[in-house]
Amino acid sequence: MFAYILRRVLTSIPLLFLLATLLFILIHMVPGDPSDLHIGDRFSPEYVAQIKKNMGLDQPVIVQYGKWLRNVAIFDFGESFANSRTVSSLVLEALPNTLLLSGISLVLIFGLGVMMGVISAVRQYHPSDFILTLVSLFLYSMPSFWLALMLILLSARFFPSWPLSGMVGEEVINKMAAIQEAKEFGEPLTVHLSTWEVFLDRARHLVMPAFALGIAGAAGVARFTRSSMLEIIRQDFIRTARAKGVSGRVVILKHALRNGLIPVITLLGLYLPFLVSGAVLIESIFAWPGMGRLIVTAINQRDYPVIMATSLLLAFLVVVGNLLADILYAVVDPRIRYD
Amino acid sequence: MKITLARLFVFSLAVFPFWGGDGPPQGGQRRPHWKDQGDTLVVAVSGDADGFLPIVNEQATAGAIMDLIMPSPTHSAFDGKILPLPSAAKSWEWDKTHTKLTYHFRKDLKWTDGVPLTAEDMAFAYKLYGDPEVASPRQSYLERMDPKKPFELLDRYTIRFNFLWPYNEQTMMAHAGLNLVPKHILEKADKKRLLYHPLHTTKPIGHGPFRLLKWVHNERIVISRWRGVKTTPVPYIKRIVFKILPEYQTQLKELETGKIDMMETVQEKDLAKIRKWKHVKVYERGYRFFDYVAWNLKNPLFKERRVRRALTMAINIDGLIKALLSFDGKVYGTKAYSTFTPELKEYYDPKFSFLPYDPKKARAELEALGWRDSDKDGVLDKDGKKFEFTLVTNSGNPRRADAVQIIQQDLAKIGVKANLETREPVTFFADLRKKNFEAALGGWSAGLFPDPSDLWQTPDKKHPRLFNFTSYSNPEVDKWIDEGLHTADPVREKEIWRKVLKQIYEDQPYTFLYWKSVHFAVHKRFRGIEPNVLSVLYRVWDWWVPKAEHKVKY
């Protein structure tokens, strides 16, 4: 097993290097460069030349490539062209927000998905199976951005006080501001903000985006689990277990589910990059300051260092996700051995 | 800092002359009392700021916030033209030649960190603005100043700017009116890396009605009223939260449910709906944006002036305005004939004679130039070449996407075939500058200073004129523009600009389409709002909420 992992890790290194090179070439092939955005009130060629020089864009592409590769090797992703900050600080700021949102929707995807899948497999052709199938097909085929907009419309109509977007509500923002003003500017302090209030506010803000982000995935996982479970519960060892007099619950959850989950685990591995990439549309609609928005803004601004760093991070996670899925196979399925 | 009664008294005396603003009180409402101070304004903005150091700031949202936290020698008002008002400078004067401008600074100003603010800070700021190594986007503001001595510090509170020649006074004042920066903080900074200075990225030291409290990237920017301000009255509103909401529909719903108080721009199609909401009021800011079709004059098809005039006559511009800018019986656009906004009343000619919409005449013109439909396929041709070209526009703008389709149909009626193409915005504008297009539908947000040189003068070695997308070149226009930029006599200037604009219209390098008026919406509890073409948050220090209606009480 260990040798297998080591081999896989070693083969990923040239893979990542190739990916990095490809990325670099692709980005430099896209028309326009960051200096295109630096057009001031009145344009002067000297100014753009100076900007290009400051960004290192005046050097030959091959030199830029060499420098970039060297820096990446020591995990230095440089400074963003469009935001006066280092790429790492931008990523480190957006990453936790995205991890929170996609982590919760991942729980939703697999928790709800597997549950729905098991129920509709166990009660095949029962009305509850039909309803679940119908609902999950409906949710699965719905574009997430549309669902997001509908959620906003409906919640604005029926629950006007429910937060529509962002991570922090106006009340908490104002209380935080009042406390900071008291601390820094000596204004009188008249408010109190409890940790519980902040937590509750954040939780309320998470509901809609996590739902919009996760529900289609959950429906997909449900369909997947259902077909995989149906195959398993028809097998001989399940019949044997039942014949032995094992309770129905144990048969389903222990004997069948453990086997039925194997293909679902492949999905889990594939979802790992999603955990970090966030969801561009959902993050924009709900104004969630995460990785998806960071990446899209960077693309619009031709912010090469940010695009490269985030793409590389995602590529890395795809490789790791696949590796993890393979290892998990061995964990859940004793028949699989890597030598 | 405890607010004692004595302090409040002094403070209210200080602001008394400003109460009620310049305009008449709105709808017979009472004037604000000092008790009405407080409440928070939550503004939705669609993108994050880049930073607040005026030397290197580029982005508009940040610029608007910067103007509230960083000092400048003058404020601006607008009444048909920009009018400077005292701010850090209490007065200024011109010499007889109208090339030397002297500012007299107030002596009681302090930066938010307590260090005195003087004309030395202005001299220092201008040294940075003009330094090529700093690469400030505003470097060209010093272009018309004496390169040997653009400015001189006469004493601690007096600074003089030396211009090379007299020109439009408002423009001169703007060129010598950039925001100031604290010398004592930036003196030792690496000037090549000002973009990364904490003054830009985290905590600016400034002097203005507000100061930056918190900036959470991609989420919110909070500014808080500063009682130490001397250049404006102390604002009534206690703080302003700029909430970054990229999605327009989300902004609209948040406005409807009262989570935000203000949207900087609302689309015209939504105005009728918003006007029905009882808690929101819509304000109109005037004409700031216009759309055009640029014809690439380097392309043999559009080389001839008569061809371009014929194409314009084939496009039903009134029809475009009706189709794209009219909603619920109201029209939010007006025909454009130049790049000068109708708000610049001095130069605007309300009786301008436009080319008529006359497809028959347009077709006849093209036929007179040898364009015939010889193969009867509905498209004109000449010497075996069809009158066919690609009309590009940028993606992400539904109005322009509709406009190109209507124009395509209009042109088809006279036998001209326009193929449509949409390009991603950054690429689109880069292509315009590289002149990599045949015809393009684009737009400008008009500046409020009369200066058509970047758009219409012939490029030369010193001035590449990258915004002259069409490669327009008319020696007479070049000469007149130079003349216009060298005159300080308002009457003469007005004559010149009218002549220039008329000639460019005659030449039709653009088919000028329409000016679009812009609107913003604010919660009704805010009073004292004077919509202004200059900025959305114009004189926000005069905005107030009656005590009884305060939403945020802390």
Question: Kindly, what is the distance between the CA atoms of the first and last residues of chain B, rounded to a whole number of angstroms?
Answer: 16 Å
Question: Which segments of chain A are poorly predicted (pLDDT under 50) over 5 or more consecutive residues?
Answer: none
Q: Number of domains in the coordinates of chain B?
A: 2
Structural class of chain A: mainly alpha
Q: Percent of residues of chain A in helical segments?
A: over 70%
CATH class of the largest domain in chain B: Alpha Beta
So what's the overall shape of chain A? globular
Number of strands of chain A: 0
- What CATH calls the topology of the largest domain in chain B is D-Maltodextrin-Binding Protein, domain 2
CATH architecture of the largest domain in chain B: 3-Layer(aba) Sandwich
Rounded to the nearest angstrom, the radius of gyration of chain A is 25 Å
Q: How much helical structure, as a percent, in the residues of chain B?
A: 25-40%
What Rg of chain B, in angstroms, do the CA atoms define? Answer: 26 Å
Low-confidence blocks of residues of chain B:
1-28
Number of domains of chain A: 2
What do you see in this structure?
- The complex is a heterodimer of chains A (339) and B (554).
- Chain A has 14 helices and no strands.
- By secondary structure, chain A is mostly helical.
- Chain A folds into two domains: 14-76, no CATH class; 94-332, MetI-like fold.
- The model of chain A has no long low-confidence stretch (mean pLDDT 85).
- Chain B is globular and about 80 Å long.
- Chain B has helices spanning 5-15, 60-69, 119-130, 169-175, 183-186, 198-201, 248-256, 271-276, 305-314, 317-324, 359-368, 398-413, 425-433, 453-456, 475-485, 490-507, and strands spanning 40-45, 74-78, 82-86, 89-94, 100-105, 151-155, 158-162, 210-216, 220-225, 239-244, 262-263, 280-295, 326-327, 330-331, 333-335, 381-382, 385-386, 388-394, 417-423, 439-445, 510-523.
- Chain B folds into two domains: 5-252 and 525-549, D-Maltodextrin-Binding Protein, domain 2 (3-Layer(aba) Sandwich), CATH 3.40.190; 287-517, Dipeptide-binding Protein, Domain 3 (Dipeptide-binding Protein, domain 3, Roll).
- By secondary structure, chain B is an alpha+beta fold.
- Chain B contains 16 helices and 21 strands.
